[in-house]
User: Which sequence fits this backbone?
């Protein structure tokens, strides 16, 4: 069974715009063509169909019964085409994966590695959101969150363990304590004022306990709200700090910081967590990349 050939697409577009906007002049403006071009396309369409689609109504045009039927069909068809094109374009340019992490991790560890991430995973465009805390309600609204946290993991989250967390004492080689700390056991730290952060108040007490020291004997000096500021102060030679190993790896390699007693596991992990029910396959690619970087 042979099919009736379709009218020219330009004629249908001109008709649809004229019917939707209520006039030839408005259709011409919307399609960025002349009034005469629209009129010619309408005549071409009516000749192709052998039907009148418009009739005069004063100074304007009114759809005939045939025109009304064709308008309904064109509106639905063009809407479907627009939606299909939009879907195809979004597949070519996928929406960014919204990833949260603390401002300190973002500034000190993630941003320097973004060129490598973009080169290795071009199919995973990211939008970063600075988020403090762990497994918060605000983080539930994100696609994923990169955290330093300790098990057990809370309900409602899928947690991918990327690498064990390791922390250590760090100090600038320019600080007066640097030389004597390198030559003495950890007990020597009890005589030093310590830089600390309110975002991780247990960092120093936990470290002291892991080295058989009494946390009550620690001398806390200048405090900072975020770990980022704490580490900047340490690099500037303002005092002795404590930090996760990856966040100071570049400074250690460059000699801007020293770690007198190395780094030890805390029992925590670097994790990439997603709210349960998320199915974005890009998260698994990102988790693999992050794990490789952290190791």
Assistant:
């Amino acid at each position: 069974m042979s099919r009736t050939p379709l009218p020219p697409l330009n004629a249908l577009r001109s008709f649809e715009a004229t019917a939707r906007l209520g006039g030839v002049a408005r259709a011409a403006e919307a399609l960025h063509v002349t009034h005469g071009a629209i009129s010619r396309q309408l005549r071409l369409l009516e000749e192709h169909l052998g039907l009148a689609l418009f009739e005069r109504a004063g100074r304007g045009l009114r759809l005939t019964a045939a025109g009304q039927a064709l308008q309904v069909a064109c509106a639905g068809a063009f809407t479907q085409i627009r939606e299909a094109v939009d879907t195809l374009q979004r597949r070519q340019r996928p929406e960014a994966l919204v990833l949260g992490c603390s401002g300190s991790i973002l500034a000190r560890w993630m941003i320097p590695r973004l060129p490598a991430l973009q080169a290795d995973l071009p199919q995973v465009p990211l939008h970063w959101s600075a988020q403090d805390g762990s497994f918060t309600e605000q983080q539930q609204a994100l696609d994923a969150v990169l955290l330093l946290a300790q098990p057990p993991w809370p309900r409602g989250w899928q947690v991918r363990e990327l690498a064990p967390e390791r922390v250590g004492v760090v100090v600038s080689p320019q600080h007066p304590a640097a030389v004597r700390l390198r030559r003495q056991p950890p007990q020597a730290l009890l005589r030093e004022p310590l830089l600390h952060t309110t975002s991780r108040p247990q960092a120093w007490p936990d470290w002291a306990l892991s080295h058989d020291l009494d946390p009550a004997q620690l001398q806390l000096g200048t405090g900072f709200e975020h770990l980022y500021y704490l580490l900047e102060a340490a690099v500037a030679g303002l005092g002795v700090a404590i930090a996760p190993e990856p966040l100071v790896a570049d400074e250690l390699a460059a000699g801007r910081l020293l770690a007198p007693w190395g780094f030890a596991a805390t029992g925590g992990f670097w994790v990439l967590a997603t709210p349960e029910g998320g199915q974005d396959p890009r998260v698994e690619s990102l988790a693999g990349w992050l794990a490789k970087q952290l190791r």
